[in-house]
Amino acid sequence: MRPSDQANFDAMYRTHHSAVRRCVASFGLPRSLWQDILQDTWITAFRRIDALVAHPRPVAWLCTVARNCAM
Fold first, then answer.
1. CB atoms < 10 A from the CB of 42, how many?
2. pLDDT tens-digit profile of 30-50?
3. Cα gap 20→64, rounded to integer Å
4. At 3, is the pLDDT very low, low, confident or very high (cuts 50, 70, 90)?
5. What is the pLDDT of residue 4?
6. Are 46 and 9 in contact (CB under 8 A)?
């Protein structure tokens, strides 16, 4: 992993964590599942940081990943 990848991930997490959490909350799933979905979402984001950074709407990308993790 390049140092810039870690910096990009940290910035994305700080910027979009609240929005992704609201997105997960809107799925209507039990609150007990939210942490697992969020963790899976951010692990995927970490692994695919290049795709996330290149996306024109990162929060949309993250919410799509969260929806897929929830399924």
1. 20
2. 999 999 999 999 999 999 999
3. 10
4. confident
5. 86
6. yes
Task: Judge contact between 34 and 25, C-beta under 8 A.
Answer: yes
Gap between the Cα atoms of 48 and 67, Å rounded: 16
For the chain, count helices (H), then strands (E). Answer: 4, 0
Cβ contact 13:42 at 8 Å: yes
pLDDT tens per residue across span 52-63: 999 999 999 999
Q: Look at residues 57, 31, 3 and name the one whose alpha carbon lies nearest to residue 65.
A: 57
End-to-end Cα, the chain, rounded Å: 29
* Neighbour tally for 14: CB within 10 Å: 9
